[in-house]
UniProtKB/TrEMBL annotation:
This is Xylulose kinase. Residues 278-417, 453-480, 538-565 form a coiled coil. It comes from Perkinsus olseni (Perkinsus atlanticus). PANTHER family: SUGAR KINASE, XYLULOSE KINASE. Gene3D superfamilies: 1.10.287.1490, 3.30.420.40.
Length: 1152
């Protein structure tokens, strides 16, 4: 069946390909005939036109010659004025340079003075701190003097009391004198310490005087700063060091003072006892008062110096203000000079351009004369050749008709073969039934085998248990055998010894059997005690030997018994079944399982073959119908192109085309046999950013009342549904001025991106509406509704204008991304009057993407049989729907499309706080609260093909595989690049320094090395694009999203995704496993998914719908994955952290 089926499929494929080729040939021949006829008519018309033009050109030549003479004169005059203007420009440039140098000097002086001001403020702060410290010291000294006075009074009282006691203690004077002498010595020591303290205090006073001198020097330096700036800076630096040293000395002396004060208070406690100490204490008090007076005078002088310094600061500030005013005046003067220079340059350029125009006009006139003559000659030759070609084409047409008749015959033969195949299939079905009967018999045999197998298993388990018991006994026996072997060795060793000892024992036995001479032993005991002891010991040893020999004999008997047991066990084990039988049983079990799986697979294959046969028969009939329909509809519907391009960058598309295309799709569905009455909901995706402008008639009659209208687009044009017949689409680039106006109104591209999710792009609808309002204000006023392509198609299904859904509204620069409502400020700016006017034209606030807009209009129900309950989901743009169709559902999922232009989409868990202008952010159409960020790269597959050159894709892959990662990056800019914003130019290659723990650096390479292990041009291009996408996604769009969602998917699609090495590089860069997708109809599939979820939401079964969607997407994903290499991912991770430096190199060289 498989072989016959393959043969039939191959034949059908060949026949289909031959039919397609013949139809293509027929269409091409018909086109060539029509084109030839058109060219003949055009050639005749051109010949007549050329003859007229020759006559006109001859008359114009005479006039042009007179004009050229006048132009030469004007050219000479303009050259003179141009030379004078250049001289004036040079003078102004010199003045500009002088003013710029003066400004630079003033700026430098201001910077230096600011630095000096900071230094001075720091010095004043340090001085204020020092003054506060001095105040604290003075306060402490005052407290000490007060305490000393109190102690002096207390000592005087004690002295009077002691004087009274002295009269009473004259009897003990001798003892008191001795004590007095010792205490006097102590007092002398204390006096010495006091003198040392006084010296330290004097030193501290000298240091404070030195410090005050330094302060005065600083004041002198401040006054001379304007004259000697460089010298002043050095002296200030030295003065700061000295001040630090002085502060250190002060702190040291303060510590020493505290220590000495402690000693001083200890001495005062001893002075309380003695009378002579009172006078000395009074002297110290006087000295302390004098010191206090000196310190107070010093403090007053410091305050005066501080006041002087503050005055000097005020003077410096006034001078700085004057310098700033002068700088502003100079800057204003420079701006005026620049404006004058620009105006003069513009005048010069205008004169130069007028001169060039005149010269070019003269050259064009001459070239037109020459080309006209050449064209006349060429046209005559072309007419002759085309006549010959027309005759040939007639012959070709006759041959094509003959081939068509032959193909019809072949079709009949194919149909007969199909009937034969159907008969064969019926016979094969009989054979399959017989196979089923055999399978049932085999199943019964398998059941019997399974029963016997279970019995065998039970026996096997019992045998396994016996085996385990026997193995345990064998292990024990082995242990005994090991012991027995040691005993055997001992036996061999002891056997030899025993033989020698047996002889000794026999002899000793003989001696023992002899009667013992007791008297002799007694004599020995009495005469020689040592020999008697030895003989006694020998006798004991002989008895021990005899006992040991008896034990050896017993052990030998036990060893022989164990050996016999071991041999019997060994024989019993040999009789038992071994592990081979167990392995055989496992193999049999596995074979049974394999057979069962094969049976199930065969059943599934048989069912699939039956389904495929039915599908093939249905496909053949459907293809016949489609062939006829294509022949009828192709010439009528697809003759015109879908877009109209103009030289100013405008690209428009007929609005009626969308209605006709929608009707054509539904007609095809009906002809294909689709059950229209069973359709529950209709969803769709439209070209994003395109717009359609409807009149007031469209709000009432968007569809005809008569269901016999065959072409909706034509009917809508005739009934005035559109105020603008050709609306702008996404390829339009003519709104650059409006984009700049909108950004300046909002406050820059960053502010606009934060508000609407993207900066102002030329293709976005809001800028297109602004241009339309400015250029055609009257038509704009007559426009009742403004629709996107998606909302217009939904409106055609509903019969009345529908709202825009918020996913598609994000591509207009009109919607606030945070609230998902129209921005009133932007709408008012675009409308020019009020925001409500534009919001009413848009149909109100944006709609939920998963909401139902209504039911299908009666026109569609009556004409095509739709159910009255069939609902319409709000349509969305192609980018949001494609994201859903590709499976971007969860946060952190990333989709990379490697096509003509590379794109990268990432699902964000929430709205970014500040959406970057580099990305286009829009709400997720089926995940409320989530967002999708989209990156677009202009130079995509073209760059990879340039690098590939003449090599095959296999050689391209080998170059990547054989080279090491993270060495070089290459960026091609064949056209203007969006990310980063670069001008067109030559490729840029950068060497990466990624060694050790140092920061990654990038170096520009002027000469490219040859491809090898260290450098691969193929790898450098792929790595640059992958690292750029990772940098923008993980650093600018959503910082840290790769680390936040490590389980997110990485999906790769497009032509580049077919290359395994490219997928591996993306896997290593992102650190995720890559799943490749091949879904050309992702936008349509995503729209169908969205309609399914909208229906489930309306019915209250949204969770079941989401689960069904998840299962369907996981089933359609490719099972083969590229897993990341951990070492390569670590290298790319370090490079991505410093990728901003590479972007800086690119912007510095070619930024725009």
């Amino acid at each position: 069946i498989k072989a016959t089926r393959k043969e039939t499929e191959m034949k059908l494929a060949k026949k289909r390909s031959e039919i397609q080729r013949e139809t293509q040939r027929r269409d091409e021949s018909a086109k060539e005939v029509k084109e030839a006829r058109l060219e003949l008519s055009t050639v005749r018309q051109e010949r007549e036109v050329v003859a007229r033009e020759l006559h006109d050109v001859e008359e114009e030549l005479k006039e042009e010659e007179d004009g050229v003479r006048d132009l030469y004169k004007e050219e000479e005059r303009l050259e003179r004025t141009y030379k004078l203007a250049i001289d004036e420009k040079k003078k102004l440039d010199r003045q500009l340079r002088r003013e710029i140098t003066k400004n630079d000097k003033i700026v430098k002086e201001n910077v230096g003075k600011n630095i000096e001001m900071r230094i001075k403020t720091e010095e004043t702060q340090s001085l204020s701190k020092a003054i506060k410290g001095m105040d604290k010291l003075i306060y402490l000294c005052q407290e000490k003097t007060d305490s000393l006075k109190a102690e002096v009074g207390r000592l005087e009282k004690e002295n009077e009391e002691k004087k009274e006691k002295l009269t009473e203690q004259q009897a003990a004077s001798q003892r008191s004198k001795r004590a007095f002498d010792t205490r006097r010595k102590r007092l002398e020591d204390l006096l010495r310490e006091r003198d040392l303290l006084n010296k330290d205090v004097l030193k501290a006073d000298d240091s404070t005087k030195h410090w005050m001198d330094l302060i005065r020097r600083h004041q002198m330096m401040c006054s001379n700063l304007d004259r000697e700036l460089e010298v002043g800076r050095k002296e200030l630096h030295h003065a700061q060091k000295r001040a630090v040293d002085v502060e250190g000395q002060i702190e040291k002396h303060a510590v020493e003072l505290s220590e000495e004060n402690a000693k001083y208070f200890a001495a005062l406690e001893e002075v309380k006892i003695r009378e002579g100490r009172i006078a000395e204490v009074e002297k110290m008090v006087g000295k302390a008062e004098a010191k206090l007076a000196q310190q107070q005078s010093l403090y007053d002088s410091v305050c005066a110096d501080r006041n002087l310094y503050s005055k000097s600061l005020i003077d410096c500030n006034a001078e700085i203000e004057e310098i700033k005013k002068k700088f502003k005046m100079a800057f204003h003067r420079i701006e005026q000079l620049k404006d004058e220079v620009r105006s003069k340059e513009a005048k010069l350029m205008k004169a130069h351009f007028e001169k060039n125009k005149m010269t070019r006009g003269n050259a064009r006139v001459r070239e037109s004369l020459e080309s006209a003559q050449e064209r006349i000659e060429g046209l005559e030759s072309i007419i002759a050749t085309q006549k010959a070609e027309a005759e040939k084409l007639q012959v070709v047409v006759e041959d094509a008709e003959k081939e068509v008749s032959s193909h019809e015959k072949e079709l009949k033969s194919v149909l007969s073969e199909r009937d034969l195949l159907a008969n064969q299939l019926s016979s094969r079905e009989v054979e399959v039934r017989k196979l089923y009967e055999k399978i049932r018999l085999l199943e019964s045999e398998l059941r019997q085998g399974a029963a016997s197998f279970n019995d065998l298993l039970k026996d096997r388990r019992s045998a396994d248990r016996q085996l385990l018991d026997l193995r345990r006994e064998i292990d024990e026996a082995k242990l005994h055998v090991a012991e027995g072997r040691t005993f055997i060795q001992q036996k061999m060793r002891l056997g030899k010894e025993i033989k020698a000892e047996v002889l000794k024992c026999s002899k000793l036995q003989q001696e023992l059997e002899r009667p013992m001479n007791v008297h002799r032993w007694r004599r020995l005991q009495s005469s020689d005690m040592q020999t008697f002891e030895r003989l006694k010991r020998v006798r004991e040893l002989q008895q021990r030997l005899i006992q040991a020999q008896e034990e050896v004999v017993k052990k030998e008997k036990e060893i022989t018994a164990k050996e016999s047991e071991f041999m019997s066990l060994k024989a019993a084990l040999q009789k038992q079944p071994g592990p081979e039988i167990h392995d055989q049983i496992l193999l049999l079990q596995q074979a049974v399982k394999d057979k069962q799986t094969q049976l199930t697979v065969l059943e599934m294959n048989m069912q699939e073959y039956r389904q495929q046969c039915h599908e093939n028969s249905a496909d053949v009939g459907r293809l016949r119908k489609q062939m006829k329909e294509m022949n009828d509809d192709f010439i009528e519907k697809c003759r015109l192109s879908g877009s109209i391009k103009e030289s100013s960058g405008e690209v428009r598309s007929p609005s009626a085309m969308f209605s006709s295309a929608l009707q054509l799709c539904i007609q095809r569905l009906e002809r294909a046999g689709c059950p229209m009455e069973k359709i529950v909901c209709i969803g769709g995706s439209g070209q994003q950013h395109g717009s359609v402008y409807l009149s007031t008639a469209a709000t009432d009659h968007l569809l005809p009342d008569d269901d016999n209208v065959d072409d909706l687009g034509k009917w809508q044009l005739e009934n005035g549904v559109f105020t603008v017949k050709d609306g702008p689409i996404w390829m339009d680039t003519s709104t650059s001025a409006e984009c700049r106006e909108l950004e300046s109104y909002i406050g820059g591209s960053d502010a606009l991106a934060k508000l609407t999710g993207s900066k102002a792009w030329e293709r976005f609808t809001g800028n297109q509406i602004l241009k339309f309002r400015k250029q055609s204000s009257g038509v704009y006023e007559r426009t009742a509704r403004i629709c996107l392509v998606s909302s217009f198609c939904a409106s055609v299904l509903l019969g009345h204008p529908a709202r825009v859904d918020y996913s598609d509204a994000a591509g207009m620069n009109l919607m606030e991304l945070s609230s998902l409502n129209w921005s009133r400020g932007i709408c008012g700016f675009v409308d020019g009057r009020t925001s409500d006017a534009l919001i009413s034209k848009l149909g109100g606030q944006p709609a939920d993407s998963m909401a139902i807009a209504g039911t299908v209009a009666p026109y569609w129900q009556q004409r095509y049989g739709f159910s009255p309950v069939c609902s319409v989901n709000y349509w969305s743009g192609d980018n949001p729907c494609a994201a859903v169709g590709m499976g971007l559902l969860n946060s952190g999922d990333i989709l990379v499309s490697l096509g003509t232009s590379d794109t990268c989409l990432c699902v964000l868990p929430s709205m970014p706080l500040s959406p970057p202008p580099s990305a286009f952010t829009f709400p997720h159409p089926v995940k409320p609260g989530s967002y999708i960020a989209m990156l677009v790269y202009t130079n995509g597959d073209v760059t990879r093909r340039i690098v590939k050159g003449d090599r095959s894709w296999d050689e391209f892959s080998d170059s990547i595989r054989l080279s090491s990662p993270g060495n070089c990056l290459t960026l091609f800019t064949s056209t203007q690049e969006i990310l980063p914003a670069l001008e067109q130019g030559d490729p840029i290659t950068v060497k990466i320094d990624n060694q050790g723990d140092a920061k990654v650096t990038f170096y520009r390479l002027e000469k490219l090395p040859k491809d090898g292990s260290d450098y691969s041009s193929c790898r450098a291009v792929v790595e640059e694009r992958a690292l750029s996408m990772r940098y923008y996604i993980n650093s600018e769009v959503a910082p840290g999203i790769l680390e936040q969602f490590p389980e997110g998917k990485l999906l790769v699609t497009g032509g580049g995704s077919r290359n395994e090495q490219i997928r591996q590089v993306f896997s290593d860069v992102f650190g995720r496993s890559v799943v490749s997708l091949d879904s050309p109809d992702a936008a349509a599939l995503g729209a169908a998914y969205k309609a399914m979820l909208a229906t489930a939401k309306q019915r209250g079964t949204l969770k079941e719908g989401e689960q069904l969607l998840q299962d369907h997407i996981s089933a359609t994903e490719n099972a083969s994955k590229n897993l990341p290499d951990a070492s390569n991912s670590a290298i790319y991770g370090r490079i991505s952290q410093s990728y901003a430096a590479f972007e800086k190199v690119l912007r510095d060289e070619r930024g725009r």
